[in-house]
Structure to design on (291 residues):
C-alpha cells in the first residue's frame, strides 16, 4: 500500500489512542471529540484492511497489527516533533556532538564555551567527556578531542596544541623539595600510561623509584588528589592554570616531558555539516591563539 493514501490525521488519532488506550483521552490530547477520533481510526482500519483495536467495555486493547504499527508511528512523530522544535525565529537549531578527554573539557573548553554559544546561538553543543578512549561511530560523535600522537585508524586528525606534563603538588609538599630527585621520596600519583614518571625522572637526570599505589584514569581526578595533598601528580599544566593561579597546586620544577598533543578528530567517512565546520573553525582559531 502506498503511504500517499494514508491520512495523517488518522495516523495521529491511532497513535494517541494507542498510547492512552482510550478514544476519549486521545480526543482531549488532539483537541477533537471522541467521535472524531473513533471515526479517524475506523477510516484507517478500513484503508489498511485490518483491525487495530479490540473494543472492550472499559476501553481499548491493541491487536497484533496495532502493536506492530504503534512503535513505528510513535518514533516517527517524536522525530518530527524534535525536528520542528529546532526551528526558532526563522532559524534551524543545529547540533554538534563532541567527545572530549575530561582534562581538555574542564581546562580549556568550558572556560571558552560561553564565547562559542554567543557567536553561534543556533548551534547546540552536546559535550561528552571520556578518558581518551572513544568510539566516534559507536557514540554518535561528530568530533572527538583526544590526546596522543594523532595516528588513529580511520579518522581525520587536526592538531590543536601540545600539552607537556610536569610535576605538580601542594605548596606544603613543594616546600620540602629542594631538587627534582627529592620527588622520588613523595607519593607519586600515576595514570594508566605506565612510563610517564620514568620519563620525567630521566628528563630531570634523577633516578626513578619503584612506583606503587593508586592509578587514575582521569587527569582531572588526579589533579584533585594532588590538590588535597595525597601526592605529586604529572599533569599537563596548561590545562590546570586555574588551580595554579589559585595556589592550590604549584609546579616546583621546570622539568616537563612531551608525550603527545591534543587533536580534533572525526571519522573520514563523516559528512561535515555547516554547524560542524563552525565548531571546527572556532576551535582551531582558539587553539592557534594559544601559541
Amino acid at each position: 500500500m502506498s503511504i500517499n493514501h494514508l491520512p495523517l490525521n488518522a495516523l495521529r488519532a491511532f497513535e494517541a489512542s494507542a498510547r492512552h488506550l482510550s478514544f476519549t483521552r486521545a480526543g482531549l490530547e488532539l483537541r477533537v471529540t471522541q467521535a472524531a477520533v473513533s471515526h479517524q481510526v475506523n477510516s484507517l482500519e478500513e484503508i489498511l484492511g485490518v483491525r487495530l483495536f479490540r473494543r472492550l467495555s472499559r476501553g481499548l486493547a491493541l491487536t497484533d497489527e496495532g502493536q506492530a504499527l504503534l512503535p513505528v508511528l510513535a518514533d516517527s512523530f517524536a522525530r518530527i516533533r524534535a525536528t520542528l522544535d529546532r526551528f526558532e525565529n526563522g532559524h534551524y537549531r543545529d547540533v554538534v556532538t563532541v567527545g572530549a578527554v575530561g582534562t581538555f573539557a574542564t581546562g580549556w573548553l568550558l572556560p571558552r564555551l560561553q564565547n562559542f554559544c554567543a557567536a553561534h546561538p543556533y548551534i547546540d553543543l552536546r559535550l561528552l567527556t571520556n578518558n581518551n578512549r572513544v568510539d566516534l561511530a559507536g557514540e554518535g560523535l561528530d568530533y572527538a578531542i583526544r590526546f596522543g600522537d594523532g595516528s588513529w585508524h580511520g579518522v581525520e586528525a587536526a592538531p590543536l596544541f601540545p600539552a607537556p606534563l610536569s610535576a605538580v603538588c601542594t605548596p606544603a609538599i613543594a616546600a620540602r623539595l629542594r631538587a627534582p630527585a627529592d620527588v622520588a621520596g613523595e607519593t607519586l600519583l600515576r595514570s594508566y600510561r605506565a612510563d610517564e614518571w620514568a620519563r620525567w625522572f630521566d628528563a630531570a637526570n634523577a633516578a626513578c623509584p619503584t612506583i606503587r599505589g593508586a592509578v587514575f584514569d582521569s587527569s582531572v581526578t588526579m589533579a584533585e588528589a594532588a590538590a588535597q595533598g595525597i601526592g605529586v601528580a604529572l599533569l599537563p599544566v596548561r590545562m590546570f592554570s586555574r588551580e595554579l593561579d589559585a595556589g592550590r597546586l604549584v609546579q616546583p620544577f621546570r622539568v616537563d616531558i612531551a608525550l603527545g598533543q591534543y587533536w580534533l578528530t572525526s571519522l573520514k567517512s563523516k559528512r561535515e555539516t555547516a554547524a560542524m565546520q563552525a565548531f571546527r573553525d572556532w576551535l582551531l582559531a582558539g587553539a592557534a591563539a594559544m601559541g
Observations:
- The chain has three domains: 3-85, 92-163+261-289, 165-257.
